Amino acid sequence: MYIPSYNLEKDWKEISTVIRENSFGMLITAKNGHPVATHIPIELETTEAGKTVLRGHVARANEQWKTFETTEQALAVFTAPHHYVSSSWYHQMSVPTWNYIAVHIYGKMKIVNDESLKNSLRKLMDTYEVISKNPQTLDGLPQDYVDKLMKGIVGFEMSIDKVEARFKLSQNKDNTDYQRVIRELKSLDDYNAKWVAEEMERREK
Q1: What does the alpha-carbon distance between residue 120 and residue 130 come to, in Å, rounded to a whole number?
Q2: Given pLDDT bands bounded at 50, 70 and 90, which one contains residue 205?
Q3: Half-sphere exposure of residue 69, counting CA atoms within 13 Å on the CB side?
C-alpha cells in the first residue's frame, strides 16, 4: 500500500483498535497466480502462547479455503468509515480527495478445526450478539446442530508478519484547512462524515 510519511501509522494500539472496530474485512489469497478474495469477519485473537493472530472462517463450499496452505502470503484488509473531501472546503486552490483509514495485514494461513474453531465461533457470537434483545450463545444451541454447522465451514488462523496502516486524514493541510474540513464533514447528515471528523478532531495537530 502506498503510504506517504505523514499518513503512516505505526502505533499498534491505534491499528488494533481499527481492526477490532471494523473487523468485517477482506481476505485475499492466491490461486494459480490469481487473487481470490472473500468478505468476512476477521477477528484479532491471542493464542495460548500469547501470540496475536487473525482468525475467522469461510464456508466449505467457498473453495478459497483450498488456497490457505498453498498461498505464500495472504492479505487481510480492513477499512474504517471514510468520506469525500471537496476542494471547495480549502482556502487555497487544491484538488478534491478522500479521507480514510486502511490497514493491511500480511501473513501465513493455517487451517484450524475442532476446538480452536469452536472457540473462535463462541467468541464471535459473544461479541456480536450483544445487539440482540435475546442474545444467543454457541453453547446454547443443540450440540448436534452445532456439529452439523461446523462441518460446513473451514476455520483459519493467520499470522501477523507485516502491518501497513494508512490514516489519511488531511495531515498535509495547514490548520485552517484542517479545521474547515472538520467543520464541513460535521455539517453533513452522514455517519461516515461525522466519524471521520471526530477522528480528525481526536488527532488534531
Answers
A1: 16
A2: low
A3: 7
The candidate with the shortest Cα–Cα distance to 11, out of 159, 203, 198, is: 203
CATH class of 5-114+148-197: mainly beta
Residue 8 per-residue DSSP state: B
C-alpha dist (Å) from residue 205 to 102, 178, 179? 20, 9, 10
All three cell numbers of 62: 467457498
Q: Which among 31, 112, 106, 27 has a CA at the least distance from the CA of 67?
A: 31
Q: State the pLDDT at residue 49.
A: 86
CA 28/CA 124 separation, integer angstroms:
21
Domain map of the chain by residue range?
A: 5-114+148-197
Residue-wise pLDDT tens digits, 9-61: 999 999 999 999 999 999 999 999 999 999 999 999 998 888 999 999 999 99
